[in-house]
Amino acid sequence: MKRALLALLFLSGCATSGYGHLPADQQADVHRIETYMNGVTGMRASFNQIGPDEGHSSGRFVYMPGHLRLDYVTPHIMELVAGDGHLVLDDMDSGAVTHLSLKRNPLGLLLHHPIRFDRDIQVTDVRRGQGSLQISVAKANNPSQGLLTLQFSDIDGKLSLMGLQGVDARQNRFSVSLNSVEEGVAFTPTVFTPPGG
């Protein structure tokens, strides 16, 4: 993550978009990730999250290209729905409903549809590990607005999303790890209807 942050600071001075600047093997990895993410018809998992204040939370993660939903169970019941450029968080404990634009939020980089890591998105880092692959991306025209890292298992050439890490413009960080991931899950459109929508 430190290397990705340094790349973010370096690239904020030059507007390199896409991933054509990467070595051929990394370009191939980025293309694999694009193909995988756009092919996800529906994903469900349990998640654990560490927030900017180092607070821990957990619940259920639901994703399909362009849409995300998090149903928090701990520390208390909350519902987050993101898509169409907006994020809505309903805190059942306090009754507060928060509306945010995804323009300056790292999650916005995940919720383009189709996902393409070129044009207005810049790939800042690609890393391979034993049975793992991760990619870090930012906005090409303003990388300092946020960085998103997608983490995958990569077993026998098969990718599976295993986690997200983000850093926003104020250097607030979050990480989400996924467990018991199910793919190919069918959801009704109402699953991604924002609270109060």
Automatic annotation (TrEMBL):
Keyword Cell inner membrane tagged: no
Keyword set, alphabetical order: Signal
Gene3D superfamilies: Lipoprotein localisation LolA/LolB/LppX (2.50.20.10)
UniProt-recorded name of the protein: Cell envelope biogenesis protein LolA
Originating species: Gluconobacter japonicus
Record SUPFAM superfamilies: Prokaryotic lipoproteins and lipoprotein localization factors
InterPro entries linked to this entry: LolA/LolB/LppX, OM_lipoprot_carrier_LolA-like
Leader peptide range in chain numbering: 1-17
